[in-house]
Amino acid sequence: MADNSRFDHDLVLAHKFPETTFTYTERDAAVYALGVGACGRNAIDSDELKYVYHENGQQFVQVLPTFAALFSLGSLTNGSIDLPGLQYDPRLLLHGQQYIQIYKPFPSSASLINKVSLAGLHDKGLYSLAENLLIEQRTGDYVFISSKAAILELETKSYEKQSGELLCMNRSTIYLRGAGGFSNSSHPYSYSNYPVNQAAAPKIPKSQPFAVFEDCTQPSQAFRAVIKCICRGDANIINTISGRFLLHVYPGETLITEMWLEGSRVIYQAKVKERNRAVLSGFVELHVTPSL
């Protein structure tokens, strides 16, 4: 495959993203909950019915916290990232990780103002080749071979338009194969504008040599299991959510979510039952330590 990537990191860092808007209704929130499996096993499950239906009216329906992952879609152009100084083959783009900070429960319907900024820029350079080979030796999976790569971390803060209150922050880690090498250094280049205690070394998902279509419901199904089993249906105790994409999932496969409670942090991973392979991992931070 030809390398059609060009990267001017000075232009990328200088870019100011325009504000975007996102509007959703009670129906959107309910359809999303149904789409990720709410009430799929039991139509009157009280822990999940509140995300789909409310006897006093849909204006009282609750919103799953992972619905926030949709808020940042307005920063994409036809499903890709449009940045001055960044020219790349969109077929080589991978969504590696998603981090969500929840500041307050989401209203049943709202119009939001999204403020987008570049939270991180990392030049993996030739190190991406070594990293991919190490992953292959450890897991036995087929992975892509790339001589250079770049990682973008886009941060989106979503404010309720009417009140101006900050509802949540999304941080998306985007891996661009073939777009690195711009630092002209033998060492990887990194830029980030978020606190060190929030920084996590980006881990890149394994890739197969065929097209990958991302399904945003995959992590949402895992988080819903955490809400059901650990939070006892109370999503309001969730503080932060972090998920890392590890491997592809084929249509029709069965996902099993495993979780461990360590204080106020839930460590989880989602596995494909048919292949016994982990496809998603991460953690959920809670405001309180639940009693099981």
From TrEMBL:
An example Gene Ontology biological process: fatty acid beta-oxidation
GO cellular component: peroxisome
Gene Ontology molecular function: (3S)-3-hydroxyacyl-CoA dehydrogenase (NAD+) activity; 17-beta-hydroxysteroid dehydrogenase (NAD+) activity; enoyl-CoA hydratase activity
Residue ranges of every copy of the Peroxisomal multifunctional enzyme type 2-like N-terminal domain listed in the record: 22-126
Pfam entry (one): MFE-2_hydrat-2_N
Listed PANTHER family: PEROXISOMAL MULTIFUNCTIONAL ENZYME TYPE 2, PEROXISOMAL MULTIFUNCTIONAL ENZYME TYPE 2-RELATED
The protein's name in its UniProt record: Peroxisomal multifunctional enzyme type 2-like N-terminal domain-containing protein
Organism: Populus tomentosa (Chinese white poplar)
